[in-house]
Amino acid sequence: MEAEGQRKKEAIPLLTPYRMGKFHLSHRMVLAPMSRLRSYNFTAQPHAVLYYSQRTTRGGFLIGEASGISDTAQGYPNTPGIWRKEHVEAWKPVVDAVHEKGGIFFCQLWHAGRASKYEYQPNGHPPISCTDKPITSEAQIDGTTAADYSPPRRLSVQEIFQVVDDFRVAARNAREAGFDGVEIHAANGYLVDQFLKDGVNDRRDEYGGSLENRCRFPLQVVEAIADEIGADRVGVRLSPFADYNDCGDSNPPALGIYMAQELSKRGILYCHMIEPRMITQFERVETKSSHGPMREAFKGTFIAAGGYNREDGNEAIANGNADLIAFGRLFLANPDLPKRFELDIPLNRYDRSTFYTSDPIVGYTGYPFLDQTP
Ligand code: PHB
């Protein structure tokens, strides 16, 4: 009989393989999209090669940081773009490094909408949105500094068509850079979410009012991108329950379920939901709300994100509440997170004060691997 110690240990649920459409994943721990504000001049930098490759495992799935789709898309310093030829060229070595280690890498396409200010806009113009209502809450991305946003300008219908096309071109660019697919950032109070939520969208035309109308622009973006690169390479990130950036909805379950159904109809590869418990961008709280009905309504791969750890991540997979779990802060501070979960050993602690600095090493590529821990 096999001795106890020699018996092959059964893999924890997070470390079991999963097939996401045409992609064969060797485990279920996804690198969550995270802005790191180290892309000087809105261009991916060579230090990103090391950062992403450190977090790559063979068959692992990584979602890149929010990348601006046009010259009006940025809202923070040093976030990368994907709208110019130079941006595409700059991403190529990063994508190549991830592929060399066997990872699957999606580019997150982002437009900040009104969560921006004059200084990030061409010629100092107002940021664009579905509305001209400014953000009134004190929004913070790093937990310390209040961002002061400039009042936005309401897009005309003609201009909305142009933004849809910007998303399409950005998706084409992402594929040209070598990314395996794209994730549309439709969460956290940025442009797409601004259209979705009735707390912001006050339009009286076909892009505002009813749920169907508010979802029109987001779904046009989805369709344009699916048409360009194939629905089997498109994911969408949603946060129906959140009100980050002063962007809340009066009926999150209805919004989340409707979007899940519509995305399902369009054969989108995955739906990536931020947990209702992430009531602020920083802390989780207990809540009775659940994304269960959205998981039910969506037929493709369901990714859950929001303050997960080894224990509740395993539980969510085992219970069928999600197919994959995205880890942000833990992955940021532990480049070898899957290994550490496998061995069930202590994690490096993350240092929030260096999340959003521009240092190319400290708080970025400087977190130690297991074998470097003293
Ligand atoms: C977010 O989704 O919360 C987010 C996106 C882009 C940023 C920062 C935060 O630059």
From TrEMBL:
Keyword Flavoprotein applies: yes
Pfam families: Oxidored_FMN
GO molecular function: 12-oxophytodienoate reductase activity; FMN binding; oxidoreductase activity
Domain of life: Eukaryota
Cofactor: FMN
Keywords associated with the record: Flavoprotein, FMN, NADP, Oxidoreductase
Keyword Acyltransferase part of the UniProt annotation: no
Domain NADH:flavin oxidoreductase/NADH oxidase N-terminal: 14-348
Family per record: Belongs to the NADH:flavin oxidoreductase/NADH oxidase family.
Record protein name field: NADH:flavin oxidoreductase/NADH oxidase N-terminal domain-containing protein
